Amino acid sequence: MAATRSSTPDVAERHLDEASYLCMSENATQSIPKTTTVTEQTVATTTTPLQMEDLLGPGSRILTEFLQAFKPLASVVINHIPRRYSAEMSEPSTHHPLGLLFKDENQSAELADVLHHIQNEYVPRGPDGPDSILVGGDRLTEGNSRGIQWVYAEGENADQRLEGLVFKFEDWHAIKNLFEIYHRVFFKDGSAKDHGTLLANMDKLRCVQTVRFSIVALYCLWYSFFTLVCNINNVGGHALVFKEMGFI
Q: Using CB atoms within 10 A of its CB, is residue 73 exposed (0-12), middle (13-18) or buried (19+)?
């Protein structure tokens, strides 16, 4: 572990990134370099720039949170990967209460009323006509709304055609769908004694009765369980890499 320490922040950050990079590369490509020396060439040939950019941050955060030897390096961890609109996203949001519309989105006519209300009241206007805003919901809402937009595609103007609305399904719903797929693929009754299975992990973490059933009703608990399992696997993967690099 002492090999990863440094009195210079830049050097410390590089060592931390190299260790996290190799671990995440192992998880992604199943290829640990058979060497104890980490070089730029090694880093460049074991994964793609996209993997390195996106996986170093989470790996470094987990290391400094759960391993005592790495806690002094917490100050050099990149908590938020810089993106094109990072500066804008860091600004505090302005909340505007929109009120309630007593409409049933499962009824096509009432959903059309809701979408036209959003188009007319909340889509910003410019010299060239209405701009665009994102309208989010679950997958069913997105699909139904897109169908309504197609129905009005022959409208006389942009407002009638609902051209200011860009539909998407929210991240929380995509994550919920991921959990459902994860459960359907990896959960099997009777596998609690098989090391590494989903049910075995649930049993060891004492959350079988809490998490093994409804993902919809227990979304927050599923999220916590999934995060914990990812952290455990990440720390275990780092331990294998450190052993391969000769640190332990």
A: buried
